[in-house]
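S.,

Sequence below, as promised.
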Amino acid sequence: MGSRRSFLRSWSSPLSLFVVVVALAASSADGFKAPRVPCYFIFGDSLYDSGNNNNLNTSVKVNYSPYGIDFPAGPTGRFSNGRTAADIIGETLGFKDFIPPFASNPDDRQILVGVNYASGSAGILVESGKQGRMYELGARKVALAGISNIGCTPSLIATVGTNGAPCVTSVNQLVAPFNIGLKSLISQLKSAHPDAKFGYLDTIRAGILASQVFAAFKVKTTPCCQVSTVTGLCLPNTVPCSQRRSYLFWDAFHPTELANRLGAPILFPVIQRIL
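The prediction came back faster than expected:
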């Protein structure tokens, strides 16, 4: 168990981070159907990255085919065949346009609507997780997502093995302490800032082991695309599976757009409660 614990701590899994969805206090708009919140800010890792790594000196970027094969703009840097969960939540909130990545240098108008700061392989650091600072900047509606069942990714299943179980149980068990700590943090934030609203997004209940998500796919542990044995990402310019709606995973780490579409609505009731 000790070796797997250290493996989990050091492994830069794209499922081992959390996203913070931030909206400021809502105001109504007259004359047109406005989004349910005036702005939407996204923080996290490759599950939510929409292109912030494209110009960085890193191997963790996917602005190439076959990524984005089902996305309107093609390979934008999203780690999926199509929309991410953050995209789908944005659509559900009523935003007509996708929230732009910070790396795209959004103009003043776009910044007032929202920015996506998520970056593939981002780490959990004190300086990147100061919720109090967000509050000082005006955040009043914040949803934080726990760690998902990372032991169910094709990469970990292939690397560690499951001993006949659907996933790597020992790795999934290591997720629980972090999520318990995150829930405690949210309770502290609620007490410290009673004029704001904070919610916990249970990504395990809405994730790849959720019955309505897991059962929807015929292929659950094999990536849709051909992946690199080093990075677990799709090999550039290769042809992915044609039956993408049958696959839970796009590459060795990240879900397909359909998996995101099935999982995001399970999270949305929590977001509704903080609107």
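The first strand starts at residue 20 and ends at 24.

Coffee later?
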